[in-house]
Amino acid sequence: MKLLRIIIIPILFLSFFKTTNGQQEEVSDGYVKFYYPNGQVSSEGMMKDGKPDGYWKTYYVTGVIKSEGKRTNYMLDSIWVFYNQKGDTTQKISYMYGKKNGYSITYGYENLWEGVDTGVVIAKELYINDKKEGISYYYYPDGNLKSEVPYVNGKKQGLSKEYDENGIIITLVYYHNGYMTDREEINRRDAYRNKQGTWKEFYPDGKVKKEEVYKDNLLDGLYKTFNESGNLLLVLNYSSGKLVEEVEQEQMDVDIRNEYDDQNRLIASGAFRNNIPVGIHRTYDKEGNVINSKIYNESGNVVAEGIIDVEGNREGPWKEYYQDGKIRATGNYQNNERSGKWVFYYKNGKVEQTGDFIRGRTTGIWTWYYENGIMSREESYFNGKEDGIMIEYSTDGRILTRGDYVEGEKEGEWYYRVGDHIETGYYITGLRDGLWRYFYNDSTLKFEGKYLQGNPDGKHKLYYENGVVKEERYYIMGIREKNWKRYDEEGNLTMTITYQNDSETRINGIKVELPEREIKLIQ
After folding, report:
1. Top-level CATH class of 33-243?
2. Whole-model pTM above 0.70?
3. By the number of CB atoms within 10 A of the CB, which of 116, 122, 208, 246 ranks highest?
4. CB 426 within 8 A of CB 413
């Protein structure tokens, strides 16, 4: 929905006249009202020395409030609130001395699930003297962060991040003095959900924690880890998922140290920098077979342990460690792919998740736990995709989500516990289909409506907790049509909005278009 940044004030207001019974009168100080031609109040507030001052309100021609806020010494001051033609808050802007100072918060109401009747923040922008400053945040319609953009003196400056709907950073954009200087796509998957290109993880302060390169879901290129200060800890080189060898040792100023037994047979080999072990270190038996390997980071800490043969393949039992030496994961490799049971741990030693792999792909039942040891989720996999039942639990053991997957897509009946209500309905190949119902915690119906191929379709109804109808909506394959009605808790009709081809055409029977002469921009 397009955001409204306007206050309706008749042109007569600017001349400090008002119209009464067809006659113009000079506006006197004190409380005044201005009117539309249909007699509806367009704005009201205090006048001082012939100019607006104090608290003011403006209205749509339908009588719905459009904006309200305070003026101090005739200048916009404090929080001004703006509304759409339904009366929903669309924006809150902080002013001081007539200029934006503080946060401007924008709300959205589009694409919300049925039954959700409050807007979500879709933009949060900081202003100083009418110019954007610091980090501006932008959000998806469901409230998840979409992007964060840094500003200095009203211009984009520094690193901007774009997120996907799951909260993963997918684009890095660099700005200088308002101009884009570089753009990098990261953490991307192709149409088959395979990882492709550069993937990065970050510390909370934004520094890169890990960087790796994928091709068709296999590591292919340099694998790097960094400490919290940004210093490189580990560099490995992969090709088609196989560990080739450390990056060219000569370029990293390391020396390779080999250890031999009394019969001059190689029994150990590894790289050192400043007498600190780095990279892969292997131990050999008398026949020259690798019997153990360790991977060290740049600080000399072991980050993984198992067998890495001379071709770079991981084989047999394997352990992975946090940087402080605590176990992060245990399991097995077969032909360089995870195989059998794997267990992943929190830093406190408690199990985080556990499940099985076949040829590097998740399979069977996987189980997740909270840090206190209570089960948080159970999910079934086949050939690397969700397949079968999934149940998610709260910390007190209540079911939060329950449903089935078929080849990675939601299918059949699903159940959700979301905040103050419960949602039930059906999916077909990952899309809502058929009747969906929401219930308050006391089992009172909150919402019911049908979906067709993921789109709302037909009449949708929302209810108050006392069972009285709150709203009636109508869709044709996701397109808003016909009359939408709102009621108060007594069941009295309070508003009717008419839609045609997804656009509002009337509110309470009055056309929504307003004459241009009655619109005055406030900024």
Report:
1. alpha beta
2. no
3. 122
4. yes
